[in-house]
Amino acid sequence: MNEAGKISVLLADDHSFFRKGLFMLLQQTGKYEMVGEAKSGEDLVKMAIEFEPDIAIVDISMPYQNGIDATKRIREKGLKTSILAFSYYDEDYMILKMMKAGAMGFLNKNTDFENIIDAIETIVVRKEIYFHVNHRKRMMNYYAIEHREESKENKVKFSNRELEIIHMVCKEYTNAKISEELSLSKRTIETHRARIMEKMGVSTAVGLVIYAYTYGLVLPWNYEIVYNKNP
Fold this sequence. Notes:
Layout: E1 7-12, H1 16-28, E2 32-38, H2 41-51, E3 55-59, H3 67-76, E4 82-87, H4 92-101, E5 105-108, H5 113-125, E6 130-131, H6 133-148, H7 160-170, H8 175-182, H9 186-200, H10 205-214, E7 218-219, E8 224-225
Parallel strand pairs: 1-2, 1-3, 3-4, 4-5, 5-6
Antiparallel strand pairs: 7-8
Helix pairs in contact: 2-3, 4-6, 6-10, 7-10, 8-9
């Protein structure tokens, strides 16, 4: 962030109409310092080196070096810039390639503007991975499995009640639904959930779910909960 507390943003997209429209919308919020527009992956890398913005919103398919290769180069150069991938195409293999290259999130270009704001805040301010709800379950499954072997054994201990709540959050239950299922007050669920997130060191539901999958607290796809043997 700059001295005024604004998040610096670089846009990279070969479609001029889309790129300039998004640039203008972000600028009008008054929350962002718009450092530039790149129309190719090659331009993106050059501008990332020159400005080193907080975040670059990157189209996956661009000429003269695609978004995946450009993201790899930015990561290899050790720049602080986080990458939010953007595309009209949302096949799993494309998103996964972008994430493996070093992106911190993905959005389909048909998304609402509010989701772009949410993604920027999640990635830059909360330092967490972002997926829109339409891709969240699949991508977090893949992401967790990819990183599970690399992760150390979970040192944080959760009670069986906390594990039940983690399980339900992974199934995208609301606090009200969890309250109903467990016959507990909504306030009690909120307290448990806040304590769980504090233990994990995360601040969003996405961060909670990724943590749960990565450390094997919940098994992907069938959402089987892994209870403590000794409550």
